[in-house]
């Protein structure tokens, strides 16, 4: 069996930077487009409904990320497992991995849909969602969670395609779904006056569209990535354990950040709905900058997985260097663009002076320093590609989550400052970056030696 050469990338031979970028940039662009479409949710709610509707949508971001990140992390495990099978030329095992991945995707999606519908109001109360927006926020969150099975299908399906270097078709699916999302946002909010609920419904419909496109791509594959629904999908326990061993710590790492962000969101809520709306507006640009780092991180994981499985340690070292240099440089460039054009960019979301003040603070204190996330994201991604996923997750817990929570619990009550609250982000990035980068540089040679002994 052979893969479709139009979409795959030879990660084991030739120059690295060009191929790495050809995988990373569509991943980053996919995430950026997704965030732009999410930004459209916030903008439509703020411009055509009310600032309360805007806050209702924005206040849910950290909650949604916390709950689904753990399960989406399993898709990273699927990516690494499939990529390692490709690196070892074990094509006969790829189909089993694909079947197992899709079963996990549907099962986890159904669980999240039921769970989210039940706990939505309690979670929002737990993070002190402002009383004037909690009703709309609950509606939005429940509608969003109804689409969780489709969110999981898209993420797992995209991870499978990326394992062979195909990050373009997931991008195409997002473009189509995102355009539909924007038009439905406007229709539901302006014509039907559904406010936050209309935004949630548009998002769910767009998630259905993107997941169906990913399924179509997999069903039409000619080679070893083909999903065959004419036969019963078989669940492979051994492959599932490998997925969990790699993906669960990755999901925990993401959930750790989301947990700390939920704690900070609770602190932001204490400043009122104007601060919530301003923070949500600026956070859109912050996410866009981070997605560049994330794109190169995911590409580094896939490249490292294949080359580590093939036993090419020198190429693994080069992947880390290339991914770090490209990721940090492009992220800095994007941060500077948003900083220079901060006033017109933020006016897309709000014309309220108080909301604008909070948004400017977050953009200048947080988004401008987003490149610092690459100092832990990329070395952590490389460690996951070599099968070491738990250590960067634990180090992220120590360097970021605990620090942020301790700050909110101990310092923030005595210094109730929005600027100081935002400053905890770059401080935690510096600490986490030092820890994870040091671990990668100090342990990779030991990992290579173990790999050599295993192969021999």
Which properties best describe this structure?
mainly alpha; 16 helices; globular
Helices and strands in order:
Blueprint: H1 17-48, H2 51-58, H3 61-87, H4 94-126, H5 134-146, H6 148-162, H7 168-191, H8 195-219, H9 237-269, H10 273-309, H11 313-340, H12 342-346, H13 353-365, H14 374-385, H15 390-411, H16 418-455
Helix pairs in contact: 1-2, 1-7, 1-8, 1-10, 2-5, 2-8, 2-10, 3-4, 3-6, 3-9, 3-10, 4-5, 4-6, 4-9, 5-8, 6-8, 7-8, 9-15, 10-11, 10-13, 10-14, 11-14, 13-16, 14-15, 14-16, 15-16
Describe the structure.
With 456 residues, this protein is mainly α. It has one domain. The chain contains 16 helices and no strands. The chain has helices at residues 17-48, 51-58, 61-87, 94-126, 134-146, 148-162, 168-191, 195-219, 237-269, 273-309, 313-340, 342-346, 353-365, 374-385, 390-411, 418-455. Helix 1 (17-48) packs antiparallel against helix 10. The protein starts with 16 loop residues before the first helix and ends with a helix. The mean pLDDT is 87.
Question: Quick gist of this model?
Answer:
By secondary structure, this protein is mainly α. It has helices spanning about 15-50, 50-60, 60-85, 95-125, 135-145, 150-160, 170-190, 195-220, 235-270, 275-310, 315-340, 340-345, 355-365, 375-385, 390-410, 420-455.
């Amino acid at each position: 069996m052979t893969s479709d050469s139009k979409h795959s990338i030879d990660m084991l031979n030739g120059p690295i930077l060009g191929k790495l970028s050809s995988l990373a940039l569509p991943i980053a662009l996919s995430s950026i487009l997704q965030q732009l479409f999410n930004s459209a949710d916030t903008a439509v709610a703020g411009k055509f409904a009310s600032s309360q509707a805007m806050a209702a949508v924005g206040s849910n971001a950290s909650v949604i990320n916390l709950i689904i990140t753990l399960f989406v992390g399993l898709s990273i495990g699927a990516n690494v497992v499939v990529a390692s099978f490709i690196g070892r030329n074990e094509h006969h095992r790829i189909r089993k991995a694909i079947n197992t991945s899709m079963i996990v995707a549907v099962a986890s999606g159904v669980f999240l849909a039921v769970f989210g519908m039940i706990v939505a109001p309690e979670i929002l109360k737990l993070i002190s969602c402002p009383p004037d927006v909690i009703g709309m926020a609950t509606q939005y969150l429940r509608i969003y969670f109804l689409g969780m099975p489709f969110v999981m299908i898209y993420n797992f399906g995209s991870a499978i395609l990326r394992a062979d270097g195909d990050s373009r078709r997931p991008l195409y699916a997002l473009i189509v779904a995102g355009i539909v999302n924007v038009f439905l946002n406007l229709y539901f909010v302006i014509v039907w006056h559904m406010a936050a609920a209309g935004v949630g419904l548009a998002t769910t419909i767009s998630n259905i569209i993107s997941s169906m496109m990913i399924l179509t791509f997999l069903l039409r594959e000619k080679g070893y990535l083909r999903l065959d629904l004419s036969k019963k999908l078989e669940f492979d326990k051994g492959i599932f354990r490998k997925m969990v061993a790699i993906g669960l710590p990755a999901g925990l790492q993401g959930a750790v950040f989301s947990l700390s962000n939920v704690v900070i969101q609770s602190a932001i809520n204490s400043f009122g709905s104007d601060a919530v709306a301003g923070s949500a507006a600026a956070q859109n640009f912050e996410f866009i900058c981070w997605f560049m780092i994330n794109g190169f991180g995911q590409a580094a994981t896939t490249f490292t997985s294949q080359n580590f499985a093939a036993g090419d340690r020198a190429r693994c070292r080069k992947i880390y260097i290339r991914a770090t240099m490209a990721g940090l440089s492009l992220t800095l460039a994007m941060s500077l663009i948003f900083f220079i054009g901060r006033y017109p960019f933020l006016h897309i979301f709000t014309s309220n002076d108080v909301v604008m003040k909070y948004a400017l603070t977050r953009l200048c204190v947080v988004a401008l320093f987003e490149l610092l996330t690459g100092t832990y994201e990329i070395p952590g991604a490389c460690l996951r590609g070599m099968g070491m996923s738990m250590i960067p997750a634990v180090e992220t817990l120590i360097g970021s989550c605990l620090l942020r929570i301790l700050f909110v619990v101990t310092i923030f009550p005595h210094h109730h400052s929005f600027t100081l609250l935002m400053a905890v982000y770059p401080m935690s990035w510096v600490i986490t970056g030092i820890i994870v980068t040091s671990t990668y540089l100090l342990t990779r040679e030991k990992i290579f030696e173990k790999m050599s002994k295993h192969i021999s």
